[in-house]
Structure formats: C-alpha cells, structure tokens
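User: Here's a structure from my thesis project, written as structure tokens. My advisor, Dr. K., wants to see whether a designed sequence matches the one we expressed. Can you design one independently, without my sequence as a hint?
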C-alpha cells in the first residue's frame, strides 16, 4: 500500500528564556576626576550564532559619561565595553534567526580613582527565535485508498535579513557651542511595508543634544528626524506580512559642528540596525481523512503551531512623578541639566482587552547648591503604568520598544524634584495558531470478504456520503451512483441500498 510522507514548512516563534547578568566596565577618562555627574548606559547585541539548544551572542555596553575634573571643568566621554552571553533551551533550533532584547536594569559607579572609573551594569536578556518548522503530512497513491482533502491557510517565513542604515540630521544653532557634552539618540518604528525585493521602513530618530555655551550655561534641545528607508530583502513581494525591529548602534553615532552665516550647524549621523522578517499567507491542500476499501488503517494525527504576526501598534502617553532628596543630600537651588535619559519596560501584557504597559523612567539630574557652591547629581527613577485599548486575543505575545521625548526636571521647595516626559511605545505582537494534520498511516488487517450481493445500510439524519462510505468501506461514488434519488447530507433517517458484484 502506497503511503507517502510529505512535508511543508510554517513560521514558528519561541521566546528565549529571560535572565540577568552583570558587565564590569573599567574606563580611563584621561584626566583626574573629581566626581561623576551622569552616566548614560545602553546595551546592544552584535554577532549572533544560533545552534541546536543554544544561542551565543556578543555585544557592547555603550557608556556616555559626564564628569567634573579636579580642575573644575565639565567634560564628557564615550566608551564601549564588550561582553558575551548565551541562551540555552531544548526548544532552540539551529539555523533560526534570534532577536536579542537587552534591557539595562541598573548601573552603579563602584569606584573612581585618578582617571579610572569602575562601573557595574546589570542587564536583562530576553528575545524571540524565529525559524521554519517542517510539518509532516501524508500523501496517498493507491486506488484502494479513499481520501478526503481540505485547504488550510498557513503562514510561511519568506525571508530574514539584518541591515544597518544611517539617518542624518542637521540643525542650525544661533549661539556658539563651547563644548558638546552628549547626544542621546533613539529610534522608533512607525510602519513597514513590503515591495518586490525590498521592505520599506518608516520611523523617527530622536536625538537629544546637551551642550555648554560660551557663557558656561547648559542647554539642550531635540532633533526629530523622520525617515523612510528601503532595505533589500531577497524573496519579498508586495503586500506580504513584514515585521521589523530597530535599534541605534550607539558606539557609531557621530556629530559634526561647522560654522555658518547664522551661527553653527550641528550634524548628527545615527546608524540604525534593522532586523527584518517577511512572511506570507499560503493555502495548501492536505488529506484530512482516509480509509481503505480492502484493509483497516491506523491513522496518526499530529497538531502543530504556526506563528502569526500582527500589525504594529503605536501607543503615546505621559510620565510624571517626583523624587524627594535624602536628608543628608545637598538641597537643590538650581537644576543645571538632566542626562542619561532612559526607560526600561518591565512588563507589557494584555488584560481585559487592554495593553498594559509598565516600566521605570530614569534620568541623572545635575544641580547647583548655593550654600557650598557645588555641583551635585542624583538619579531620578519614576515608575509608571498606563494602558491602551486593544482588540485582540489574550494569547498574544508582545515585543515592545520605546523612546522618551520632552524630558524635563524642575525643582520644587529645594528638596523635591518633579519629572515630566512623553513616551512613545511601538508594540509588535504575534500568536500561535494550532492546527492538526494526518501525518502517518499504516495497515492494520485485511477486511473480511463479503459473501453477499446486496446490503441495506440504516443511515441517520445529518450523515454525508463520505460518512457512510467510510463506515462500510466502499467508494463514495458507489453510494451516490446506486442511490441517485438520495440527497446528502441526509435530512432524515434513511435506508441506503448497496449492490456488490459476485
């Protein structure tokens, strides 16, 4: 008996196990340090290797340090610290594509000695692995086997690629920049569309610039640059399903300052890393039922999961909160600047048709105390939570990225700091659709030979011609041809007559 085992592939995603680890950074700033005022920290992955049971990857912790020297000068310095880590799980399939999500939980300056700074950065790692999963399905090439087929719609992973493109922004500044202290760049995905051989990505790069003027005044402003970039993706076609994840490659951001007729021109070039995947819906035909007219057959049915990607959703909200200084901390007479702005999303989930978003916004506030004529700094951490209505299933898995805008910190009553910012969150989601197919079949035993020429089958209301044919092990055509006046499915209990050749 000719049973064939065929296969087709579907897109599958699995979550990588979440865990925490620490990275120690020892940095030389090149001059004697009096105090560290602000540290901005971000983590990015670089090279990723996916093997059976393990994902190995390397990355960098990017630091932007603002400090005061023993001579009273305010300087800044950028550094990158390399690290490597891994995920281990029996579910990890070699050859897949891993999206690594790194969150800076906290960082601490453990020591300052001369020009050396020792920092410990605690990072949470998580992620999603995407791959093609083969599904076994039976094929039949035997005249004695009757089959019933159905069409099922599956999602296939067409292509996956990683690319880096540069977003350039320029702005004119009337006053002179004496010293550029920091640029903090973020990227937000707004829309993705597929074309023939490419994917179009739209979004915003937001850069916060902090500088010192000739009058030794701290100033900051935002540059909001909209971009539309086409990334080459072999195999992509129009109107297919696309997902993209974007991040800024912090250690490669460059700035240039040029004098022009109106003052100065500041140009920021921001490399953006894109992880792009293209999917398509495909209808395939599979055997959903079968039987033999000569033998009993044992059928094996197996279920499988197919991951379905949903359109991106953008959520906007505000973050507000306050911090009261410790009693032994110098009072705040003037806020000079805030730097090292960031946000860590601690939880994003669905509940009662609402997307719940929880996290912590952070910034380093540098302030002046008149009594001691000293510069001081304190880290402000503001927990937040908000929700957005969402029409979907609670079985969705969510992946979110965010940017902060319009960060502002003001002093109230000398010891109270009030924080205010806007937040934008881009949420990508997917869910697993569970289906089942006949994956295998085997012959059990021959059917008993008929020793009669005619048979009357008592059939019930609602039964189809296939139901009856499978029950008595004859072709469907025999039932319909020998009972031409009978309509199926049956509207009432009926007697069906069958004739057999001697």
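Assistant: Designed independently from the structure alone:
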């Amino acid at each position: 008996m000719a049973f064939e085992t065929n296969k087709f592939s579907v897109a599958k995603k699995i979550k990588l196990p979440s865990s925490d680890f620490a990275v120690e950074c020892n940095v030389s700033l090149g001059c004697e340090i009096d105090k560290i005022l602000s540290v901005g920290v971000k983590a990015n992955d670089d090279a990723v290797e996916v093997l059976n049971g393990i994902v190995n990857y390397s990355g960098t912790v990017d630091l932007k340090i603002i400090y005061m020297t023993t001579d009273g000068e305010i300087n800044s310095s950028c550094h990158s610290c390399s690290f490597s880590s891994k995920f281990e799980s029996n579910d990890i399939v070699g050859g897949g594509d891993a999206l690594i999500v790194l969150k800076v939980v906290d960082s601490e300056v453990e020591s300052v000695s001369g020009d050396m700074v020792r920092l410990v950065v605690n990072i949470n790692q998580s992620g999603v692995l995407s791959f093609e999963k083969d599904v076994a399905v039976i094929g039949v090439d035997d005249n004695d086997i009757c089959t019933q087929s159905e069409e099922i719609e599956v999602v296939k992973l067409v292509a996956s690629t990683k690319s880096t493109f540069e977003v350039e922004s320029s702005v004119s500044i009337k006053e002179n920049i004496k010293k550029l202290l920091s640029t903090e760049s973020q990227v937000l995905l707004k829309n993705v569309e597929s074309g023939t051989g490419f994917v179009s990505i739209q979004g915003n790069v937001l850069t916060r610039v902090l500088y010192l003027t000739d009058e030794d005044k701290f100033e900051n402003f935002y540059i909001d640059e909209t971009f539309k970039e086409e990334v080459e993706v072999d195999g992509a076609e129009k109107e297919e399903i696309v997902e993209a994840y974007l991040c800024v490659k912090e250690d490669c951001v460059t700035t240039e300052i040029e004098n022009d007729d109106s003052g100065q021109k500041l140009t920021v070039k921001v490399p953006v890393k894109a992880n792009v995947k293209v999917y398509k819906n495909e209808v395939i035909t599979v055997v959903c039922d079968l039987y033999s007219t000569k033998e009993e057959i044992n059928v094996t049915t197996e279920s499988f999961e197919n991951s379905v990607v949903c359109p991106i959703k953008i959520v906007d909200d505000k973050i507000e909160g306050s911090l009261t200084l410790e009693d032994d901390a110098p009072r705040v007479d003037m806020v000079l600047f805030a730097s090292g702005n960031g946000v860590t999303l601690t939880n994003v989930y669905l509940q009662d048709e609402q997307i719940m978003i929880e996290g912590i916004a952070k910034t380093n506030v540098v302030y002046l105390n008149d009594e001691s004529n000293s510069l001081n700094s304190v880290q402000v951490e503001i927990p937040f939570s908000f929700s957005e209505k969402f029409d979907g299933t609670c079985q969705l898995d969510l992946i979110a990225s965010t940017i902060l805008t319009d960060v502002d910190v003001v002093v109230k009553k000398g010891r109270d700091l009030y924080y205010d910012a806007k937040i934008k969150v881009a949420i990508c989601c997917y869910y697993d659709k569970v289906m089942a197919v006949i994956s295998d079949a085997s012959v059990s035993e021959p059917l008993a030979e008929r020793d009669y020429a005619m048979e009357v089958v008592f059939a019930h209301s609602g039964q189809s011609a296939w139901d009856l044919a499978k029950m008595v092990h004859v072709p469907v055509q025999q039932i319909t041809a020998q009972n031409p006046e009978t309509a199926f499915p049956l509207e009432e209990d009926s007697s069906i007559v069958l004739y057999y050749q001697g």
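When you compare it with your expressed construct, this may help: The two ends are 24 Å apart (CA to CA).
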